[in-house]
Amino acid sequence: MSAAAPFREARIDLGALAANLAVLRRLVAPSLVMGVVKADGYGHGAELVARALSEAGAEWLGVADIEEGLALRRAGIVTPMLAWLHGPDADFAPAVAAGIDLGISSLDQLERAAAASGGLGRAMVHLKVDSGLSRNGIAPAERGAVLARAAALQAGGRIHVRGIFSHLSNTSAADDDRQREVFDQAVAEAHAAGLSPELRHLAATQAAVERPGLRFELVRIGIGLYGLPAAESMDAAAIGLRPVMQLSAAVAAVRRVPAGTRVSYGYTHRTEHETTLALIPLGYADGVPRAASGRGMVAINGRSCPVVGRIAMDQFVVDVGEGRVAVGDRAVLWGDPADAVPSAQSWAAAAGTIGYEIVTRVGPRVPRVAR
Question: Which one of 26, 52, 96, 117 is CB 3.0 to 4.6 Å from 14, fit for a cystine?
């Protein structure tokens, strides 16, 4: 193995990321696009992808919490940004000072945003409406009071309501339509209270792609930017989206074993015949799902090799059969199927989860390497 060969790495194809953004911007135009880079850019590296998206023309960036946004500001990223999930003691002042818009889900948050303004300038807020998920968002019973107070605070120059938004369940078209009705009612109530938000946003990737009528002035695109489908109904490749992450590692050991050889913890696998086993130095500490033990596939030298035995914290074993393999060869867990490697979606199916979780859970000891 070459001394420069990486032990583990997640290659991040910034060209594919920019191309995905271009595809989605054309699709949703004239709506603006918010590139969602929360959770370390869905596991791809927040600073890496936020910078690339900004340079490629994303009009907005979305993060879950203020600290994620402040980290990007410290990295020199100046693109308009929204943070929408706040702890009960979250300090809004640094966000206001850094020009990060605040998603507001309660009267208490609204008051704290206004109080944080001080000499820093008006807090820019987006009122988040609970339209049916029963999670984050202004509760229906509180909506009138929040809208009235927001109008008063805006009239007093302490805040500016730049946006109003909600989030869909993506359960069915009928459910989306019901949520849109709630959202439309909230927007009408905001106008009646004297507010005129410039930006309405309801659609994330799935609705932005499949429901043109739900796009409004802004759409929030997360998983689609990373080249993965938001739902089983979506064919990402057919739209023109390409996976951005390729997770791989150097084969750490190779051994030829006889029939009946026991493999990994619990001996859940025993070889049926003489074969070659390869050790891959990635495990559930790196985000490889243990639930995919005995089900996942890995590509080595153009050959698909099954995971055998249990995936451990730092390593797992694949059966190469009669294929050619040597220590140092690259083992690709997931990437772009066009490159004849498994997809994140195939690993999701093997683990009984979704592609979002597969890429987002890749651990910190795997370096993200731009290519």
Answer: 52
2 pLDDT band (50/70/90 cuts)?
very low
Q: How far is C-alpha 118 from the geometric centre of its chain's CA atoms?
A: 34
Residue 27 pLDDT > 80: yes
Q: What mean pLDDT is reported for the chain?
A: 96
Rg (CA), the chain: 24
Please report, for the domain that includes residue 93, its CATH number: 3.20.20.10
Select which of 38, 42, 226, 356 is catalytic. Answer: 38
Same domain, 199 and 331: no
The residue written with tokens 């966000």 in the block is 95
Domain that holds residue 130: 31-226
Residues 78 and 117 in one domain: yes
Q: What's at 147, amino acid-wise?
A: L
Provide the pLDDT for residue 4: 56
Distances (CA, A) of 98 to 14, 30, 93, 297: 26, 28, 9, 45
Residue that is written with structure tokens 């590692």 in the block: 249
Is the domain of 186 the same as that of 39? yes
Q: For residue 3, what pLDDT is reported?
A: 46
Task: Mark whether 38 is an active-site residue.
Answer: yes
Within 10 angstroms of residue 75's Cβ, the number of other Cβ atoms is 12
Is 208:221 a contact under the CB 8 Å cutoff? Answer: yes
pLDDT tens readout for residues 183-213: 999 999 999 999 999 999 999 999 999 999 9
Selecting among 42, 226, 265, 356, the annotated active-site residue is 265
The answer to whether the beta carbons of residues 74 and 95 sit under 8 Å apart is no
Same structural domain, 45 and 188: yes
Do 198 and 163 meet the contact criterion of CB atoms below 8 Å apart? yes
Residue 265 annotated to the active site = yes
Q: Give the model confidence (pLDDT) of 315-347 as tens digits.
A: 999 999 999 999 999 999 999 999 999 999 999
For the cut 90, the answer to whether the pLDDT of residue 255 exceeds it is yes
